[in-house]
Amino acid sequence: MAEMVGKHDAGKFGRVKKPNLSMAQIINISMGFLGIQMAFGLQNGNASRILGNFGADVHELSWFWLVAPITGLIVQPIIGHMGDNTWSPLGRRKPYFLIGAILCAIGLVLLPNAASATQMMAANVLLLAVIFLAMMDASINIAMEPFRALVGDMLPKHQGTLGFSVQTILIGIGAVIGSYLPDWLTKLGISNVAKEGFVADNVIYAFYCGAGILLLTIIYTIVTTKEYSPKEFAEFEGQSEIVEQPSKLSDIFSDFAKIPTLMKKLGIVQFFSWFALFTMWVFTTSALATHHFGLSPEDTHSVEFNKAGDLTGKLFGMYNLWAIPFAFLLTPIAKWIGKKQTHALALFCGGLGLISMYFIKDTSLLWISMIGLGFAWASILAMPYAMLIDAIPQRKMGVFMGIFNFFIVIPQIINGVFGGPIVKGAFGNYAIGYVVVGGICMLLGAVLTMIFIKSDDANPQEIEEEIQQVHF
């Protein structure tokens, strides 16, 4: 395993400072996220298409997508809490994202093959697909949360923005590969047309590739990264020896009651940001099929509908591709105008990007919309976490990162419940209008960032004292 470089210098009050990490070490820490996001990109770009192939109506799609945020709501805080309070020969976080990766790889293989499995099991294909989707989502969440916490564990706080920016770059690369892969396979001669009730071969083989790359990148991070030991974490907290503290899952609720002020304010911003993202992920395929390709909402099997599905994957790949250069720029922009101003600017650009999809009728020009969304996506994946680690005590990094996920999944759950009926009742199943609503929500997120976030909201000592009062 790779060793951490640098000396553990003594800081104030007898604490030992974390050493700075090299760029190579930061990349090693987050390499597994490339594979996770490739799986996520395959799911985002193809889940609605797959469910449509299996017979789901457009107004039902958001209900099926509820599986992802619900599993995140349950899984991430639990995994974060367990990671904070356990240690194994493999490390603190690594066992969890290894288990998550293996299960997710299995889900990637099973989901597009739900129709074939249905024939063998005499089950309902949509029900089986949702079960496989739930398995995949739960596994992604098991793997994803420890990577967020690992950056907070391993990096000194002044390297936080850099660490999450590097993570965003790798996320972008993985998502680009995942989003474009079905189209690339089509160009290699693999069919992108599915017979009724089945999934096209290009999507199936793309999911197979995603499973393999996910496992390889996770193993790479495990081999190249050595986590700090409990003794070293004790030194970072200013303790001369390891202090064993009783821990139980119910502690999550008391921790939730003591979340930092900054997390609450960022949570409001996250609500509008992720409401918009969920809208885009669920309804873009249908929006393109009806608004740009002129299809009826009931058409979910034709060649043109599958072309709309391929275009959705390419567009999602484009915004992830644009996110990569913007991720490089986040650190210098944040130093220039501030973290909250950077995030507000990015959300404003993302909102304009979503709204512009209504007005740009030429599909060859929709890449313009993806520029703003790429800036927003880069910032959403980095800046809230870079701001948040300034307010989180080290020994609660995992559980608070998991609790912060509440503010990501709750808006998705609300959108999942009401989004389909709104598209049906307010827009007659023509989803482009609801995509515009998503853009407006992202603009609101930008405004609220400027209004709510203050520089004095990050006070880790205050939250540390509150936690001490709760647990001791």
Summarize the structure.
Helices cover 74% and strands 0% of the residues. By secondary structure, it is mostly helical.
Summed over residues and divided by their number, the pLDDT gives a mean of 80
Task: Write down the secondary-structure element order.
Answer: HHHHHHHHHHHHHHHHHH
Number of helices: 18
Sheet with the most strands?
none
The termini sit apart by 36 Å
Question: Approximately how much beta-strand content do the residues carry?
Answer: under 5%
Percent helix range: over 70%
Number of strands: 0
Overall geometry: globular
Q: What gyration radius follows from the Cα positions, in whole Å?
A: 22 Å
Unreliable sequence segments: 1-7, 458-472
Give the class from helix and strand content and strand pairing: mainly alpha
